[in-house]
Specification:
This protein is α+β, with helices and mostly antiparallel strands. The protein has 2 domains: about 70-350, 3-Layer(aba) Sandwich (Beta-lactamase), CATH 3.40.710; about 365-480, Serine Threonine Protein Phosphatase 5, Tetratricopeptide repeat, CATH 1.25.40.10. The protein contains 20 helices and 15 strands. The protein has helices at about 20-35, 75-90, 100-105, 105-110, 120, 140, 150-155, 175-190, 190-205, 240-250, 255-265, 270-280, 340-350, 365-375, 375-385, 400-410, 415-425, 430-445, 450-460, 465-480, and strands spanning about 5, 15, 40-45, 45-55, 55-60, 65, 70, 210, 225, 235, 250, 290-295, 300-310, 315-320, 325-335. The strands form 5 sheets. Strands 4-3-15-14-13-12 form a 6-stranded antiparallel beta sheet, with helices on both faces. It has a 3-stranded antiparallel beta sheet with strand order 7-11-8. A two-stranded antiparallel sheet has the order 1-2. Helix 18 packs antiparallel against helix 19.
């Protein structure tokens, strides 16, 4: 599946690119038009169709990214820790119905969290209070910069506080996977790092992977970066690696993750029945350590896809796998390009399964955000309205406007956010969500009559909307 094949239609003598060529063209377009910076691997049925690296591993020294590059993968740690946990379940060292009160009595016996099970930790249904979701929260800027041993961290920051009863609701939870690391250590008498090495990395042949530590000097390590709101490249905020641990602490390469993917087939890591248990939905499109979905394809068929994203300041990762054709899409990024990586990963998996390839469009966010910060609203408006025919090169989808609008709204650029949402409504006048978002922006800036009109239009377009009538009711109550 490489090179070109010749169309045998007598009326068409043009060469048609194969899937491998299309995958390369697609990723090239993300690098050229969206600035993708990282490494990609795509494979089917044991054959790698695409290996490619883009951009820089170290900007200061102009060191390019390479396939050997090691990246931190954030929450993509969770599928590997879930696999390790289930190995111990197979061996009888842990039980899916074993509880925190049983395994960690010094922390959770006779507390509201005592009945939380291993299965609930794996499926994000424990109900335990989690860490703040946003890295801008003060906790991440202060307490997360300390170094902890795992038991100390759990005692200080994973209190036996339940947001709801165990098993009642799905809620993504880093603390739950941190606790799985403690359970692994208690069950084996060895550190999480040792367990990962002996039970996951070595059997899968992952020689370039490990649990990240701030004192480690790693060969071929890709430095993580991020951007300021006005587009300047900077180092990311510091978070001590001990905070990431079993929830987000692994570093690896694209090739090593593919070795992990191959090792999941057969019984080298898990028996088939346990792997199927791991990859079946247990709550809200989530299995044990994996997102689990059924994608609708263009031909009307469905495709089972297991996946996970990963994000830690400076790095973004995305790993998708589908078993019918043994598909794997692996993306590791060291410019913290979350939305870009997610879109590219989905595109690659869909093209691999028959979707016509469309080159990536440029980002209005990349174009307009630096302008509004450095030159102001008027300059931003002029830049957008002056695109002319070049506007077709940009992503002007409903989602594209929403992402940019909410980014500006959260950053306090309220007038600019209103303008972006107005453009979104002009481009998508029949989209209820576009009007709903504009209503929210109008409400924030105090244009209440305009907000009511936008919410009413959203409700007209989508009578099942819950957010629009709720907002209208809140506004009516506050005006009394």
């Amino acid at each position: 599946m490489c090179g070109f094949f010749v169309n045998t239609d007598a009326n068409a003598n043009v060469d048609v690119p194969t899937t491998a060529e299309q995958l390369k063209q697609l990723v090239d377009s993300y690098a050229d038009r969206r600035g993708f910076n990282g490494t990609v691997l795509v494979a089917r049925e044991g054959n790698v169709l695409l290996r490619a690296s883009y951009g820089q591993a170290n900007v200061e020294w102009s060191v390019p990214n390479r396939m050997e590059g090691r990246y931190r993968i954030g929450s993509l740690t969770k599928p590997l820790v879930a696999t390790l946990t289930l190995q111990l379940v197979e061996q009888g060292r842990l039980r899916l119905d074993g509880t925190l009160g049983e395994y960690l009595p010094e922390l959770y016996a006779a507390t509201p969290s005592a009945s939380v099970t291993v299965a609930q930790l794996l499926s994000h249904t424990s109900g335990i209070a989690d860490l703040p979701a946003r890295y801008t929260d003060d906790w991440w800027l202060t307490s997360a910069r300390r170094s902890y041993v795992p038991m100390e961290f759990a005692r200080l920051w994973i209190k036996p506080t339940q947001l709801e009863a165990p098993g009642q609701q799905w809620r993504y939870n880093n603390n739950g996977f941190f606790l799985l690391g403690l359970l692994i250590e208690k069950a084996t008498g060895q550190t999480l790092a040792r367990n990962l090495q002996d039970r996951i990395f070595a059997p899968a042949g992952m020689a370039s992977s490990g649990l990240f530590a701030d004192a480690a000097v790693l060969k071929d390590f890709a430095q993580g970066y991020t951007r300021t709101p006005d587009g300047k490249l900077v180092y990311p905020q510091w978070i001590d690696p001990s905070v990431s641990y079993a929830a987000a602490g692994i570093y690896t390469t694209a090739e090593d993750l593919y070795r992990f993917d191959r090792a999941l087939y057969g019984s080298g890591l898990l028996h088939e029945d346990m792997r199927r248990t791991m990859l079946q939905v247990h709550a809200s499109s989530y299995g044990f350590g994996w997102g689990v979905e059924q994608w609708k394809l263009a031909d009307g068929s469905t495709l089972p896809v297991a996946s996970h994203t990963g994000s830690v300041p400076g790095y973004q990762s995305y790993y998708l796998r589908s078993e019918p054709h043994q598909d794997a899409v692996i993306i590791l990024d060291n410019f913290w390009q979350g939305a870009l990586v997610a879109a590219m990963g989905n595109d690659l998996m869909e093209v691999l399964n028959g979707k016509p390839m469309q080159l990536a469009k440029r980002s209005l966010d990349d174009l307009l955000t630096p302008i509004v910060y450095n030159e102001g609203l008027q300059a931003m408006t002029k830049a957008y309205e002056g695109l002319g025919a070049r506007g077709a090169e940009y992503d002007r989808s409903e989602r594209g406007f929403n992402v940019l609008g909410y980014k500006l709204l959260r950053a306090g650029k309220q007038d600019a956010a209103v303008r972006v949402f107005e453009w979104g409504v002009a481009e998508h006048p029949d989209a209820a969500n576009a009007h709903d978002s504009l209503g929210e922006a109008y409400r924030v800036v105090g244009r209440l009559d305009a907000a009511r009109s936008s919410y009413q239009m959203a409700l007209t377009l989508d009578p099942t909307s819950k957010s629009a009538p709720a907002a209208l009711a809140e506004m009516a109550a506050s005006s009394k």
